[in-house]
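Forum: Protein Structure Q&A
Topic: Joint prediction for protein chains with partners

I've read a bunch of threads here and the consensus seems to be that you should model interacting components together rather than docking separate models afterwards. I'd like to see that in practice. Below is the full input, 259 residues plus whatever partners are listed. Could one of the regulars post the assembled result?
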Amino acid sequence: MDEIFPNHPRAESLRIRKKLTEGMRAGMVVPEGLTAHGRGEAFDYLLGERTTELAREAAEAASAALLLASHPVISVNGNTAALVPKEVAELAEVTGAGVEVNLFHRSRERELLIAEHLKKHGCREVLGLEEENAVRIAEIQSERRRVDRRGIFSADVVLVPLEDGDRTEALQRMGKLVIAVDLNPLSRTARAARITIVDNVVRALPLLVEGCRRMRGMPREVLRGKVETFDNERNLRESLRLMCGRLRELFDSGEHLFK
Ligand code: PTJ
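Posted by a regular:
Agreed with the consensus. Here's the joint model:
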């Protein structure tokens, strides 16, 4: 494996890629996960590869929703497991959330590998593995339809990092509050979720852990206010505006490149 020099201008981005390619070699991440990441990277580039104030607002509302939930669940796919396994465990610990493996490109082997990886990084229990607890959500067409009756099926709040749109829409229709993490503010998931954090999952998950730790003791009324006043549509629109503005800045500052 190539060494990543710390002074390389794209060192952080290369480190993230390395985690994914190692995750793929280990059998957790599917090749499609790499292309999905590439799409995410392009949006991250436009964001300036930093957490924006808008993402902070969304993470604040999302933390409040997780703390208010009576049965929160974190849904984990291959990319999430490869990138932020420790943070998933920390978030589960601080919120009491269940952790469930739920895959788009489902295979038994991947489910077991991902569960083992999550446990190695501190998750006490991982749902979504036993056939006897599997329930199928009729409205979802992909393999994601298979959920755990003790997990996503009975959850009131579901966190879905790096999701495809269908399930988010179906879960919302089932009356669940869905929190998405998606760098693409135009995606169906981003638009369908009640709260979308437009940020890289490697920054958003630590932000949620910090937010939940900080807000744990807050009165429920205050937490409820944060969720109710959060306007997802506005946040997505402003995130897109920010990206457009940055694109213009990049264009103007690089004008000499086009002469
Ligand atoms: O592990 P599996 O089988 O469940 O498959 C996982 C993938 C990611 C392949 C699957 O969920 C998929 O195909 O996802 P999509 O439909 O490509 O959507 C992924 C979304 O996540 C896209 O909108 C990307 O912009 C976004 N994204 C990619 N990487 C990141 C990201 N958002 C936040 N942080 C990232 N690191």
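The mean pLDDT is 93.
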